[in-house]
Structures are given as C-alpha cells and as structure tokens.
Amino acid sequence: MTISNNSTIELRGVSKSYQRGKSKVPIFDELTMTIEDGDFVAIMGPSGSGKSTILNLIGGIDTIDAGAISVGGTVLGNMNESALTRWRSNHVGFVFQFYNLMPMLSAAENVELPLLLTSLSRSERKKRVETILEIVGLTERARHLPSELSGGQQQRVGIARAVAADPQILLCDEPTGDLDRKSANEILELLQLLNTKLNKTIIMVTHDESSTAYAKRTLFLDKGRFIQQEMNQCA
Ligand SMILES: Nc1ncnc2c1ncn2[C@@H]1O[C@H](COP(=O)(O)OP(=O)(O)OP(=O)(O)O)[C@@H](O)[C@H]1O
C-alpha cells in the first residue's frame, strides 16, 4: 500500500461486467479517468449505463474484473475485506436517493452511527455530531426521528452522516432524486458548500440536468464510456 496525503481517484483500464443468466453483460471496458481532490463531478447518462456501478467501484463495495482503481495511491483491489471496510469508513461517505436512515434512531443518533466505528470518545462524538448538525442547519431537529422530518431535512441528515467521520470523498447517488425543486436546490447548495469550504471531493450521479450546474464538471456516460465532458459555470 502506498502512503499518500492526497485522495486522488484513479481508474486505469477498468473493465467490469455482470453475469446475467449464462451471458456476461459488459458495463465498462478499459475505462480510465482521474478525479482530483476537491473536484465536484456530476455524472449523467442513460438508465443502466453504469452510473451507480462507478460509485460502488470507487467506494470499494463492488469489484472490478480488470484494471486498477486507486485512491491516494492505495489500490483498492489489494486490500482484503476487513482492510477495505476500515479504509471505506475513513475515506468515503455515501449519500443515497432515499436517505437510508435508521427509522428508530433520531437525527443525531443517525449521524453518530459511523462514529461508533472510530476511536472517538462519547463526548467527542457528541461534539462532532453537534458541529455537523449545525453545518447542515438541523440543530433544532437533532432529537427528531426521520419520520418527523421532511425529505430535504432527511437528506441533510444523510449528508451529515456521510461526512461525520470526515472522509475526503462523498459519493452521492441521485441525492435530490426524491425532492422537490426548492429542497433539491438547498441540498445541492449544501453539497457545494462542503466542496468549496471543506474541499470535499464529490461525485454525484444525477438524472437532473439543472443539478449539474452546482458541480465543477459533468461527465456523460454511455455504453461503458465517458462520451463527453462539460466544464460548468458553478451555480
Ligand atoms: N449486482 C448486479 N448484478 C447484475 N447486474 C447488475 C448488478 N448491478 C448492476 N447491474 C446491471 O449493470 C448495469 C448498470 O447498472 P447501474 O445501476 O450502474 O446503472 P445506472 O446508470 O446507475 O442506472 P439507473 O440510472 O437506472 O440507476 C444495468 O444493466 C444493471 O442491470
């Protein structure tokens, strides 16, 4: 494993296919790309083009058939399952379309969850949760259950949970896909804030073209390749 201070994401000649019945369905064939620290990349493409798969590969929850993926020089394929789990909890936060919050836990308890895997003491965890809930504007809702929050508020909890352990990389799969325009824009502004103020690297899959204005660049994926790239004027 190479020790490195940055978290540049590199895909080199990545191939991936899934078995469907007796046939192999190729998703990516020798895909190569680099995402630097502090980038905010939107990924668009038709349904089934592999957008979620890219996030899963970079987050180390799915494996490649050929090539290599490295983050800050660490080659994901060289780690065993437990090393990968540890690496993931330190380096990557996931944000989901339907929030994936624990329904029986309060907003604060949901945000604290990933911190239980760290060496932080109970009081350090409490402090961290308070700070992050303040950043996402939910201090007043800390004790509320997800069912007592709006969709936009639930997604704020999801984002707070994703950044709780201070990972460099945020992988967001349709983070505004279940929200109305106003709530969606507020969530996109929050992601932009995390990118510009805290320098988080953000990779966001979206079907919504107007969301891409918040990213620094947009990659269009089709038939296993990035067919186009646009540099965005940030919103
Ligand atoms: N675990 C799996 N086993 C078999 N096939 C899979 C698996 N995961 C994804 N696929 C297939 O791989 C292709 C890419 O899936 P992926 O979810 O990455 O697409 P997507 O671009 O995110 O689609 P959508 O926009 O509909 O969410 C699809 O054809 C999908 O059916």
From TrEMBL:
<dbReference type="GO" id="GO:0098796">
    <property type="term" value="C:membrane protein complex"/>
</dbReference>
<protein>
    <submittedName>
        <fullName>Putative ABC transport system ATP-binding protein</fullName>
    </submittedName>
</protein>
<dbReference type="InterPro" id="IPR027417">
    <property type="entry name" value="P-loop_NTPase"/>
</dbReference>
<feature type="domain" description="ABC transporter">
    <location>
        <begin position="9"/>
        <end position="235"/>
    </location>
</feature>
<dbReference type="GO" id="GO:0022857">
    <property type="term" value="F:transmembrane transporter activity"/>
</dbReference>
<dbReference type="GO" id="GO:0005524">
    <property type="term" value="F:ATP binding"/>
</dbReference>
<dbReference type="InterPro" id="IPR003439">
    <property type="entry name" value="ABC_transporter-like_ATP-bd"/>
</dbReference>
<dbReference type="InterPro" id="IPR015854">
    <property type="entry name" value="ABC_transpr_LolD-like"/>
</dbReference>
<dbReference type="InterPro" id="IPR003593">
    <property type="entry name" value="AAA+_ATPase"/>
</dbReference>
<keyword id="KW-1003">Cell membrane</keyword>
<keyword id="KW-0997">Cell inner membrane</keyword>
<keyword id="KW-0547">Nucleotide-binding</keyword>
<dbReference type="Pfam" id="PF00005">
    <property type="entry name" value="ABC_tran"/>
</dbReference>
<keyword id="KW-0813">Transport</keyword>
<keyword id="KW-0067">ATP-binding</keyword>
<dbReference type="InterPro" id="IPR017871">
    <property type="entry name" value="ABC_transporter-like_CS"/>
</dbReference>
<dbReference type="InterPro" id="IPR017911">
    <property type="entry name" value="MacB-like_ATP-bd"/>
</dbReference>
<comment type="similarity">
    <text>Belongs to the ABC transporter superfamily. Macrolide exporter (TC 3.A.1.122) family.</text>
</comment>
<dbReference type="GO" id="GO:0005886">
    <property type="term" value="C:plasma membrane"/>
</dbReference>
<dbReference type="GO" id="GO:0016887">
    <property type="term" value="F:ATP hydrolysis activity"/>
</dbReference>
<keyword id="KW-0472">Membrane</keyword>
